[in-house]
Write a structure and sequence with these properties.
The protein is about 50% helix and about 20% strand. It has about 375 residues and is α/β, with parallel strands linked by helices. It has three domains: about 130 residues, no CATH class; about 130 residues, Rossmann fold; about 80 residues, OB fold (Dihydrolipoamide Acetyltransferase, E2P) (Beta Barrel), CATH 2.40.50. Strands 5-4-3-6-7 form a five-stranded parallel sheet. A hairpin with a 2-residue loop joins strand 11 and strand 12. Helix 3 runs parallel beside helix 5. It is rod-shaped and about 115 Å long.
Length: about 375
């Protein structure tokens, strides 16, 4: 809206300058008709060229008013440098122009250049890079870096609990294209995808209603985003553009982000780092629930979902055992603990003794006959 207002102001200014200069007494004389037409045609041509170049380039969001003043300053410097070019062109091609005509052309050239430089600044926000030979001064982000949420992180739901625990004090940013993808998933014909999408929307709504976290829906559009294909590629471009950290549960996206030097927070890695640390030689109790891949292995699970592979426990399914940890394996997909069977757990021993005692007693034993009965 502000950009279109600025365009309207530009059109009014350029028309006013044209009218004032074209109606001057000197240019209105018949012998100066060539100068009059040169002023009008060049002014209209430069205005149309600047407007078309501005409208046809990708649209971007205004982020800082200081950028407008910077663009105006750059435009004035460029206008001052190019002003002598008007005199040089007139003399080179022997165009008979009076001084008023040259002044009018210089004014309109300066207006068009200032408009164009301000428009560029408004489109590129504050991502300026001043390139000196072999040295580049890049923009520095002040304060906490924002956390950009992926669709998988929203659907997963654990990001809400992490924010409620005040682990993150940065602003949570949800790009518009992520929200659109979440809506498409919620409207899917597949029941499983539809439930996942609705769960993600519910999680996002709870985060917006929370007082401990600040959630921002970002509508920023950039040329790089329009050129990127797929939500994952757009997320990488967006995170790098806003100097944010990408939060996701996607293993492949995590690896691609690391290759492209984008800071990424994998929720699974964060959850795995908070699980119980098992050192070799420690004793643990676990219930064996199923056989393992090897002939003598049994599988059990801790309360947090960590899988435990126990040697010598294949025939102890359904029993609580005591094991000795031999090693552990930590991956992005989860955590595994390996151990060997030591003995049955104390609670399981009591249950087994009771079952054996009740099992040795005949269930349908007939009472002995008394002498009176015989």
């Amino acid at each position: 809206m502000l950009l279109w207002l600025f365009r309207g102001i530009f059109i009014v200014i350029i028309i006013s300058v044209l009218v004032v200069n074209a109606s001057s007494l000197e240019l209105s004389k018949w012998e100066n008709s060539q100068s009059w037409w040169t002023v009008v045609i060049s002014g209209v041509g430069m205005a149309i060229f600047a407007l078309m170049l501005d409208v046809l380039t990708p649209k971007r969001k205004l982020s800082a008013l200081a950028g407008v003043f910077f663009g105006l300053l750059v435009g004035m410097l460029i206008s001052g440098a190019l002003a002598p070019a008007v005199d040089m062109i007139a003399e080179s091609y022997r165009i008979m122009l009076v001084e008023e005509a040259r002044t009018a052309m210089k004014w309109m050239l300066g207006i068009c250049i200032c408009y164009f430089t301000i428009s560029i600044v408004m489109r590129t926000k504050d991502d300026f890079r001043f390139v000196v030979p072999y040295v580049e001064f890049a923009k520095q982000t002040k304060g906490a870096r924002p956390i950009v949420l992926d669709t998988s992180a929203i659907v997963d739901g654990r990001i809400y609990d992490l924010c409620e625990s005040r682990l993150f004090d940065a602003t949570i940013v949800v790009p518009r294209f992520v929200l659109n993808e979440l809506q498409l998933i919620a409207d899917s014909a597949d029941k499983l995808k539809r439930n996942r999408g609705r769960r993600g929307l519910d999680v996002l709504k709870r985060m917006q209603a929370s007082t401990t976290v600040e959630v921002e829906i970002d509508d920023t559009t950039m040329a790089e985003l329009d050129e990127a294909k797929g939500v994952d590629q757009k997320l990488l471009v967006f995170s790098k553009g806003c100097n944010g950290r990408l939060a996701t549960t996607d293993y492949n996206l995590t690896k691609v982000a690391q290759v492209r030097t984008v800071d990424v927070i994998n929720i699974n890695d964060l959850a795995n780092s908070l699980k119980v640390v098992a050192l070799p030689g420690e004793s643990m109790e676990v219930k064996i629930v199923k056989p393992g891949e090897e002939s003598d292995q049994g599988i059990g699970y801790l309360d947090d979902g960590t899988m435990i592979v126990v040697e010598g426990a294949r025939n102890k399914i359904g029993r609580m055992i005591l094991l000795s940890v031999t090693s552990s394996l930590q991956t992005s997909a989860g955590k595994m603990i390996f151990g060997k069977f030591e003995s049955f757990a104390t609670s399981d021993k009591g249950n087994s003794r009771n079952s054996r005692a009740s099992g040795n007693r005949p269930a349908n034993r007939r009472p002995a006959r008394t002498p009176s009965q015989s």
